[in-house]
Amino acid sequence: MASGGEGPADGSPDWADTSIDLSSPGLAKASASMLDSGEDFEVLDEDDDDDLSELPPLEDIGTGRAPPARDDTQAPGSEQAPEEASDVPRAAEEWLDVLGSGLLKKKTLVPGQGVESRPRRGQDVTVRLKAMLEDGSMVEDNPSLSFTLGDCDVMQALDLSVQLLEMGETALITSDAKYCYGPQGRSPDIPPHAALTLEVQLLAAQDAPDLELLRGGEKIQLANRKRERGNFYYQRADYVLAVNSYDLALKTVGSSSKVDFSPEEEAELLEVKVKCLNNLAASQLKLDHYEAALRSCTLVLEHQPENIKALFRKGRCWHSRASTVRPYPSSKRL
């Protein structure tokens, strides 16, 4: 059966008819057991001392396929777009300051096929990549790395710079840690706050596949790849980019389809959707976006009314909003 479209914004909480008793011993026991779940990473570290002062709001996330497998900490859309090509002859171009801040620079080593051959956001690109620390140590050597441009599937230094590469061009990229692996680094080879130098060659660019034409297994694989990228960002406490990646996964799962799926594929797509919505709600809670988290939880409960993670997080949303919206509902349960 073909899949119909549905996104996380389709649901709305029913304040009059739904409620949850957070003090119930059963729910407290169940919420603790969630930490041992093998379903997903879904950590329920519900402490309230996270410093989110420097994180941009969810509304600042880019809507284009501009976020899942990047290793940076910068939200898509929060920086100015890469500079357009200059009229200065290539030989005199030297270093191009991509963002105007001096933190990300590009220099052409081997010219490409012209500005018109540059890839577009949303296309699938393939590059040859070498990444080095400032001391020259090689930390990555990938002869054929493929990702969706603008989806945050790779570190932001690469995602931004490839948009300025011409087909066949080889360029040297120098990037501050902010656009690479940030303050956490990447164990064991990239230390915290490490700047990187990248040598990149653009090998290919093509339009991403039409979601409506993907077979069930292909759609599941793509959605899981975006979800796992969201997990990567969540574990690095980059909740804005995590939200972006989960949204991309949900867009894939919820897209309409012109291909029939088997019952097993339909069930697996639903399972992926529930995982994404639960993790999306967890990220939204970290950003204090309670209304959005409520919508995500409600969508989970439409499919799985007994889903303990959604029940727990929906109750937490109510508790957090109680003082600003209305008296905390004294209910029995959802």
Descriptive account of the structure:
The protein is an alpha+beta fold and 334 residues long. It has 2 domains: 25-63 and 211-321, Alpha Horseshoe (Serine Threonine Protein Phosphatase 5, Tetratricopeptide repeat); 90-207, Roll (Chitinase A, domain 3). The protein has helices at 25-33, 156-162, 216-235, 239-254, 263-286, 290-303, 308-321; strands at residues 95-97, 104-110, 123-132, 138-148, 170-175, 196-207. Strands 1-2-5-6-3-4 form a 6-stranded antiparallel sheet. Helix 4 (239-254) runs antiparallel to helix 5 (263-286), helix 5 (263-286) packs antiparallel against helix 6 and helix 5 (263-286) packs parallel to helix 7. InterPro entries: FKBP4/5/8-like, PPIase_dom_sf, PPIase_FKBP_dom, TPR-like_helical_dom_sf, TPR_rpt. It catalyses: [protein]-peptidylproline (omega=180) = [protein]-peptidylproline (omega=0). It is an enzyme of class 5 (isomerase). Residues 122-206 form the PPIase FKBP-type domain. Keywords: Isomerase, Repeat, Rotamase, TPR repeat.
